[in-house]
Amino acid sequence: MPELMNQDEFRTALENAIKGKSANKSPFSIAWATGKLSRAHLARWAENHYHYVGPFADYLGYVYGRMPAKYQEAKDFLLANMYEEEIGGDRHTDLLIRFAEACGTTRARVEDEDNMSATTRALQSWCYAVAMREDPIVAVAGLVVGLESQVPSIYRRQTPTLREKYGFTDEEVEFFDLHIVSDEIHGERGYQIVLEHANTVELQQRCLKICEIGAEMRLLYTTALYRDYVEKELPLSALGLDMPLAA
After folding, report:
1. What is the Cα–Cα distance from 43 to 55, expressed in whole angstroms?
2. Which pLDDT score is estimated for 247?
3. How far apart are CA 110 and CA 101, in angstroms?
4. Quick one: three-class SS letters along 182-229?
5. Of 66, 113, 178, 239, whose Cβ has the fewest other Cβ atoms within 10 Å?
6. Cα–Cα distances in Å, from 218 out to 66, 142, 146?
7. Alpha carbons 146 and 59: distance in angstroms, whole number
8. Which tens digit of pLDDT belongs to each residue from 66-112?
């Protein structure tokens, strides 16, 4: 039977729950980082990504509303995160749409829900379900640790390619530069909230499981982008890969 872990042990366990499931491992991410995607492929990514990250403040809002009042620092973090997403400077979704337009698509296409894949809908729905139904600390583990904390490592591999291979300007890739910095801070704060408040064996185990599921969800979502939009033009063999893709 699992025992209550100290914070150092628990931090390592959380990191291990995500390890090996990074979206960096998906064929879409590999093709992106090596400059093998077309701008049209990147446009399809933006049209899907908008519907995953666009409601992120909404997800956090549901968690904020259910977070116990005694966890004031956790509530403050969630509120600050929502503020940054929506009104703390440029709205993050507007920066994403700016990149999308540079890829050749339009704001109308990005905002149209009919242009996201079934797997993107599944990821969005999972985020809403976690935000509305899970224990608030477990929800922070899933949404902030399992998902948001991955972003800097993903974008650090992809953003240089956007400049060097595709020739995007600093303004066009501001969405990525911003999230490399902000999500590193958010991810670490999420870790601290979970380490402090997941103070029973049950809560720790639930947090570990939802981090693992969150990482798997993002990996499946990113892999589906390859399957839906790229595979016919760029087979796995062209990426030096031969692993089967999840159905």
Report:
1. 19
2. 42
3. 9
4. HHHHHHHHHHHHHHHHCCCHHHHHHHHHHHHHHHHHHHHHHHHHHHHH
5. 113
6. 25, 11, 9
7. 14
8. 999 999 999 999 999 888 877 766 788 999 999 999 999 999 999 99
